[in-house]
């Protein structure tokens, strides 16, 4: 059974915003896309920028370091051909009351 | 740079400064298990090996031994800079500026707050000698001058190339003006990270407007796709446009690194070697380690008769510890014309000269004597 950790509260992460949090040794990027919360691996697979500090446009976040982009709902690069490739792991998110919780 | 008749002779060139870039933040240990160091000791030993091979500047990224990925922990950077300072005390320690730091503990949350987390680099203690400062936001498609065979198996697919092709480096005035101020306060020399000639133009404007005073050192990171590519005439134009008193390193991607290094060694410029931007020897499919790449640069310099800088020479050439206190002093030291005095027409020279060599004979527009006139 997945273990969830509280990472923030609903009021601290309004729609259109993201944040970087740590759960154990894992950096997690959590986002509010139109009221729905999503979480992906927080470290950009290019050179390790913190995706949670990137600017969110719709459901696409842009890494603050070198601009690599990811769809935060799927962890994949927007517009990329179908298949695997360089993707961020997607983490399960749930909201309990005001708490936003992530399972890594 | 202005080349005189004797500029290409090795005895007149500065000794070659080789920057080692051995930490490869783009790669994971599985991409090159024998040359990507994970433990603290191995990362330090790599610095020692690069120094012994001939590199005098160390371009630093810190890898977290727990995860094998690039560290986001500010304290780990402090600790590692300290270890490196002890292990290679003479080497110029240069921290790569594209880093931001995670909240230090569980339960804390970091959000976009301008560039505060990137500015934290200026607070590293013990302080490094240099921090790279990107100037000028640019598209940065690093796939444009490579083919799939250049990339590690993990990345050699269309999806990954698409992600890399769509990158853009964020380096706006909102970031670099404040960052330069903080570096000056911290006593850390900025190492300008530019992608093309327009980045260099921005640096000159920063100087002319009093937003940067001090020695100008840096590197051109030329990956194509929005930055300078691999057209040697573009490389030559960069060399031509860099101020006489500045020091530049030229770097590109994968096997292009070698023809670039050969040209820049011959032209009296400086080079960078390591797995951060290249995994290969000149032969397709043959790997080289960072140390082997440095050794190759040393051999190229030796064949051309150009000495390789000692660490003391590198510090002196790059004017580490030197500060300037005015725009005028900075422009003069760079060999750039002063700012235009109000109302003055024409191309500007320094006030105590006419800008021409005194001559008893008539000279043509290029300053040379006119035939038959003396």
UniProtKB/TrEMBL annotation, chain A:
The keyword Transferase does not apply. Residues 5-102 form the Rieske domain. Pfam families: Rieske (PF00355). SUPFAM superfamilies: ISP domain. Transmembrane segments: none annotated. InterPro entries: Rieske_2Fe-2S, Rieske_2Fe-2S_sf. GO terms for molecular function: 2 iron, 2 sulfur cluster binding; metal ion binding. Keywords: 2Fe-2S, Iron, Iron-sulfur, Metal-binding. This is Nitrite reductase/ring-hydroxylating ferredoxin subunit.
TrEMBL record, chain B:
This is Uncharacterized protein (DUF849 family). Keywords: Metal-binding, Transferase, Zinc. Gene3D superfamilies: Aldolase class I. It holds the Pfam family BKACE. Its cofactor is Zn(2+). Signal peptide: none annotated. One of its GO terms (molecular function) is metal ion binding. The keyword 4Fe-4S does not apply. It comes from the Bacteria.
């Amino acid at each position: 059974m997945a273990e969830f950790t509280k990472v923030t509260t609903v009021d601290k992460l309004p729609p259109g915003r993201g944040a970087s949090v740590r759960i154990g040794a894992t950096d997690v990027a959590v986002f509010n896309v139109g009221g729905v919360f999503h979480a992906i691996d927080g470290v950009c697979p290019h050179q390790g920028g913190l995706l949670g500090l990137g600017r969110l446009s719709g459901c696409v976040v842009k890494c603050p370091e070198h601009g690599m982009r990811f769809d935060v709902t799927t962890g994949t690069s927007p517009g990329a051909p179908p298949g695997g490739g360089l993707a961020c792991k997607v983490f399960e998110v749930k909201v309990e009351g005001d708490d936003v919780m992530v399972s890594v | 740079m202005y080349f005189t008749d004797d500029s290409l002779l090795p005895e007149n060139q500065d000794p070659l400064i080789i920057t080692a870039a051995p930490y490869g933040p783009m790669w994971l240990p599985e991409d090159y298990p024998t040359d990507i160091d994970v433990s603290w000791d191995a990362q330090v030993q790599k610095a020692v090996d690069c120094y012994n091979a001939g590199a005098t500047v160390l371009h630093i990224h810190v890898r977290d031994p727990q995860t094998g990925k690039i560290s986001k922990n500010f304290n780990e950077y402090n600790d590692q800079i300290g270890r490196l300072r002890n292990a290679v005390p003479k080497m110029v320690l240069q921290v790569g500026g594209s880093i931001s730091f995670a909240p230090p503990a569980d339960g804390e949350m970091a959000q976009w707050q301008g560039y505060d987390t990137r500015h934290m680099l200026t607070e590293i203690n013990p302080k490094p000698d240099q921090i790279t400062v990107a100037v000028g936001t640019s598209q940065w498609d690093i796939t444009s001058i490579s083919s799939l065979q250049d990339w590690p198996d993990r990345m050699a697919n269309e999806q990954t190339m698409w992600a890399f092709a769509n990158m853009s480096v964020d380096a706006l005035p909102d970031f670099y003006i404040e960052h330069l101020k903080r570096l000056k306060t911290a006593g850390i020399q900025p190492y300008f990270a530019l992608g093309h000639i327009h980045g260099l133009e921005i640096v000159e404007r920063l100087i002319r407007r009093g937003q940067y005073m001090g020695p100008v050192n840096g590197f051109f990171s030329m990956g194509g796709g929005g930055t300078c590519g691999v057209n040697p005439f573009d490389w030559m134009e960069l060399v031509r446009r860099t101020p006489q008193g500045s020091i530049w390193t030229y770097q590109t991607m994968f096997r292009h690194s070698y023809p670039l290094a050969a040209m820049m060694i011959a032209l009296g410029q400086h080079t960078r070697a390591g797995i951060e931007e290249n995994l290969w020897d000149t032969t397709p499919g043959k790997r080289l380690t960072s140390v082997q790449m440095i050794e190759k640069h040393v051999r190229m310099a030796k064949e051309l008769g150009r000495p390789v800088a000692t660490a003391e020479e590198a510090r002196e050439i790059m004017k580490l510890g030197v500060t300037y206190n005015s725009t005028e002093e900075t422009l003069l030291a760079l060999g750039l014309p002063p700012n235009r005095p109000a109302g003055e027409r024409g191309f500007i020279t320094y006030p105590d000269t006419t800008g021409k060599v005194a001559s008893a004979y008539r000279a043509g527009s290029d300053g040379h004597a006119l035939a038959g006139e003396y």
